[in-house]
Structure formats: structure tokens, C-alpha cells
Design goal:
The chain contains five helices and four strands. Strands 2-1-3-4 form a four-stranded mixed beta sheet, sandwiched between helices. It comes from Amycolatopsis heterodermiae. Keywords: Oxidoreductase.
């Protein structure tokens, strides 16, 4: 299992605590230091059954600079969004947990974390 985290994120602390309490084996990926590639993002989005705009933090300063709220949200716009997430990983909703069995969640709630345990 792998968890993508921003060390400053409160949701990360909660998710990691739950994983530790459950005795789960996992690796931590500090995705701001080790950003996912576009290929990795596509794979995670497929596992999540979500679109890139669904995991984008649109209130971040860089989102406003890029004008993300005005970007289209159609299949034709997908690559543009993925490229933006790869180039600006701070835009990625966190934490994201990818379990070895294929289960993948945006672990912002205890229920989401529990679903991968």
C-alpha cells in the first residue's frame, strides 16, 4: 500500500494514524518532493473511477493563477488537467491511498481510510 501525502496536511496525520493503528504496511510518498507522472496520475484516476478535475484543489493559489475554474471538464480537456496536476502537484487532493488489491481512495475521511484496510 502507498499513501501520497503532504506532510503539512492534517488529513494526512489522521489517515496515517489509522493505518498505523490497524498495523497496515505502507510506504509514504511525499508527492510534492516526488511528483507523480502523467502516466501515474492516469492510473490512479482509473483506479479511483474519477476525472482529474475531481481530485484537483481548485482553491490553491496556483489554481487561480491557471484559471482552472474556467477550464472545460470534458474528455477532450482531460489531458490538460492531468498535465497541470503533474506539473503542479500541490493541486492534487490528498491524501491518496493505493492498496495492493487495487483499491484506491482519496483518504479525506475515516470511512475512506477504513475502506482500504
Amino acid at each position: 500500500m502507498e499513501i501520497w501525502v503532504n506532510p503539512a496536511c492534517a488529513k494526512r496525520r489522521s489517515a496515517v494514524s489509522m493505518l498505523d493503528e490497524a498495523g497496515a504496511e505502507y510506504t509514504v510518498r511525499r508527492y510534492l518532493d516526488d511528483p507523480p507522472t502523467a502516466k501515474e496520475l492516469k492510473a490512479v484516476l482509473k483506479r479511483l473511477s474519477l476525472e482529474p478535475w475531481d481530485i484537483t484543489r481548485t482553491t490553491e493559489a496556483i489554481a487561480k493563477e491557471l484559471g482552472l475554474k474556467t477550464w472545460g471538464r470534458t474528455p477532450a480537456d482531460r489531458a490538460r488537467w492531468i498535465d497541470a496536476l503533474a506539473e503542479h502537484p500541490k493541486l492534487i487532493q490528498r491524501p491518496i491511498i493505493t492498496a495492493d488489491d487495487g483499491t484506491t481512495v482519496v483518504a479525506r475521511t475515516p470511512e475512506a481510510v477504513q475502506s482500504v484496510l
